[in-house]
Amino acid sequence: MKQFLLFFSLLLSITMTAQQHDHDHSGHDHSGHDHSGDHSDGHSSHEVNDFATDCGSPAKVIHHEGYDPAATAIHHISDANVLTIMDLIRIPLPAIIYNKDRGLELFSTGKFAAGHHDSGHYGYKDYVLYEGNIHRITCDDFPSTDKFEVEGFDTGHALSAEGKEIEKRYAIINGRGYHIEQKTIWDGGLLGGGVTSFYDLSPTKNVVTMFIVALLIFLVFRSVAKSYNRNDGQAPSGLQSLLEPMVVFIKDEVAIPFLKHKHKKYLPLLLTIFFFILGLNLWGQVPFLGSVNVSGSLTVTMVMALIVFVITNINGNSHYWGHIFNFPGVPWFVKMILTPVEILGLFIKPLTLMLRLAGNISAGHIAILSFVGLIFIFGKAGESFAGSMIGTGLAIPLTLFMMAIELIVAFIQAYVFTILTASYIGAAIEDHDDHH
Amino acid sequence: MTGTLAAVGAGLAVIGAGIGLGQIGGKAMEAIARQPEASGDIRGAMLIMAAFIEGAALIAILLSIFIQ
Question: Do B47 and A415 make contact, defined as CB atoms within 8 angstroms?
Answer without folding.
Answer: yes
